[in-house]
Write a structure and sequence with these properties.
6-stranded mixed sheet; about 25% strand; single chain; Rossmann fold; 4-stranded antiparallel sheet; alpha/beta; 12 helices; about 250 residues
């Protein structure tokens, strides 16, 4: 097993505001790694820096041996990184099928017709409801179904690293559990996953390792199960009555 992603001394700014400050993280191939922390801690900025949506100010991002910190988002997708953004960001007026196929846009340009159809079958096996509603407008789906659609679109790029930004946002606990089970199952198919999630407990339960972010810095790093048991982590995210929620 080798590092798939290595981030060293990464800093990112929005104008004069520093969003990331000398961040170091690594991800082994085949891992699920969670980033947890309060709103504004820098988690989403890190994902956007990796995917090239936001330009980093300094530092290094190495993916599968390639330095990608100065590459365009399109080139980063070609290398094998796919991001499922916060808030789904599906195209409401497009059909479910068209939204899914947008994820394979670069592959269609390479004329991977058979491979795309094979992957589409896998997507419909993973999310049968999407096959049932493939001709339906995406904006008419429930929140949970829209999140499934956003994940499906990301998977159609056939990534080696799938980055998920707040997949449980706005979802009921039962639907959140279903989404987390899907994410856990993706690891069983040899996919590496970087997960940003406000629901720390749900994320850490399925993660091999986790990083706790605070104001643009990595505060803690550890195995998912160890962070779950860390009293400081519990208090930081669930307050005085954390035991009621964690036990």
């Amino acid at each position: 097993m080798s590092f798939l992603l290595k981030i060293r001394n990464l800093s990112t700014h929005y104008g004069k505001i520093q969003a990331l400050d000398s961040v170091f993280i690594h991800i082994w191939e085949g891992e699920i790694v969670s980033l947890i922390g309060a709103n504004g801690a820098g988690k989403s900025t890190l994902l956007n820096s990796i995917s090239g949506i936001v330009n980093s100010s300094s530092g290094s991002i190495v993916f599968n041996g390639d330095e990608i910190s100065k590459k365009s988002p399109e080139k980063i997708v070609k290398l094998g990184i796919s991001q499922v953004p916060e808030g789904r960001q599906i195209f409401n007026s497009f059909t479910v099928y068209d939204n899914i196929m947008l994820g394979a846009y670069l592959r269609r340009k390479r004329k991977e017709k058979k491979e795309i159809q094979d992957d589409l079958k896998d997507i419909f096996n993973l999310f049968p409801i999407l096959e049932e509603r493939k001709k339906q407008r995406a904006g008419t789906l429930s929140g949970g179904e829209q999140q499934m659609l956003a994940i499906a679109r990301g998977l159609m790029a056939r990534p080696r690293l799938l980055m998920l930004d707040e997949p449980s946002l706005g979802l009921a606990p039962k639907i959140t559990a279903e989404i987390m089970n899907v994410i856990k199952g993706l690891k069983d198919n040899k996919l590496t996953i970087l997960l940003v999630e406000q629901n720390a407990r749900a994320a850490l339960k399925i993660s091999d390792r986790g990083y706790v972010f605070e104001t643009g810095n990595v505060l803690l790093e550890g195995r998912g199960e160890d962070l779950l048991l860390d009293g400081d982590v519990k208090r930081a995210y669930l307050g005085r009555d954390y035991k009621e929620f964690w036990e």
